[in-house]
């Protein structure tokens, strides 16, 4: 197990965080978000086209699969219960 001892109890903010007001904490959060967003790498055009094609093919496959299942279960229900045209 590797962790560093900082002299603070877990779950309690450090002294600098405790002294910050609400606006200081909001500003810190915004700075951290901007810092993380700078690390994001946008995909190239080729990668983006590839991702879009993968999603479109997957959605088309799922549409066909669900349509076939719906048709099959519908036919099964008609076979089991009849189509309802018989008089009672």
UniProtKB/TrEMBL annotation:
Q: Which UniProt keywords apply?
A: Cell membrane, Membrane, Protein transport, Translocation, Transmembrane, Transmembrane helix, Transport
Phylogenetic lineage = Bacteria, Bacillati, Actinomycetota, Actinomycetes, Micrococcales
Biological role stated in the UniProt entry: Essential subunit of the Sec protein translocation channel SecYEG. Clamps together the 2 halves of SecY. May contact the channel plug during translocation.
Q: Where's it found, cell-wise?
A: Cell membrane; Membrane
What's the encoding gene here? secE
To which protein family does this belong?
Belongs to the SecE/SEC61-gamma family.
Q: Does the keyword Transmembrane apply?
A: yes
Q: What is this protein called?
A: Protein translocase subunit SecE
- One GO biological process from the UniProt record? protein secretion
């Amino acid at each position: 197990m590797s962790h560093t001892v900082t002299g603070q109890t877990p779950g309690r903010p450090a002294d600098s965080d405790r002294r910050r007001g609400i606006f200081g904490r909001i500003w810190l959060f915004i700075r951290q978000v901007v810092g993380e967003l700078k690390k994001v790498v946008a995909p190239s055009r080729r990668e983006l086209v590839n991702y879009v094609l993968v999603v479109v093919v997957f959605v088309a496959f799922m549409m066909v699969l669900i349509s076939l299942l719906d048709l099959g279960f519908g036919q099964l229900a008609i076979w089991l219960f009849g189509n309802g045209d018989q008089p009672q």
